[in-house]
Predict the 3D structure of the following.
Amino acid sequence: MKKDQRNKYLQFVNIAFQMGITIAAGVFVGVWLDGKYPNKYSVYTISLSLLGVFIALYQVYRGVKNLNEDE
């Protein structure tokens, strides 16, 4: 396996970790806010977890776009 290919695989792994961390951060902050400011529908958890998913998808898009430009 070439060194260049190995770097691409590591970049994909890095993208996956970033995605997980971003979504988890949104969920944890949402749970904390729902605990601090209780509401009927867990609005903060739902909103921030969805925001985390969208941010993570944007990060994946940017990462894949950068990988394609490097070729």
About this structure: The longest helix spans residues 3-36. The CA atoms of residues 8 and 67 lie 7 Å apart. The two ends are 17 Å apart (CA to CA).
